[in-house]
Amino acid sequence: HNADGWRAALAGAHPPADGRLWALVGVMRDKDAGTLADLLAVHGARVLAVGLDSDRALPAGDVADMLRQRGVVADAPRSAAEALAVFRRFAGPHDRMLVTGSHQTVAAVLREP
Q1: Is 21 left (phi over 0), alpha (psi -120 to 50) or beta?
Q2: pLDDT digits (tens, 9 = 90+) for 3-43
Q3: CA distance 28 to 32
Q4: Which residues make Cβ contacts (< 8 Å) with residue 26, sequence separation at least 6?
Q5: Does this model's pTM top 0.85?
């Protein structure tokens, strides 16, 4: 949930040559979402931005807009469950999903089957 953590996660998240990197992202207002967006742009990630159940969270639409401004393909499903459904429907067999932005993002994904 910080720049160093995002750099480390992205360094290990490379899909095979015939795969794409997806990122399921939810982020808090007090975190450096701009740096995360820049890093995701550099890595060519396709992003599914989700809202989190917190007053501190950035709305998913705002996160997606920030990413698009940096050239990232980004959508804003309403929930982690919907984001996972999009990934399952459109991801190829060698694609990878990175869940990041906030510990709450990871928790939301872990609650899903």
Answers
A1: beta
A2: 888 899 999 998 989 999 999 999 999 888 899 999 999 99
A3: 9
A4: 49, 50, 51, 52, 57, 60, 63, 80, 101, 102, 104, 105, 108
A5: yes
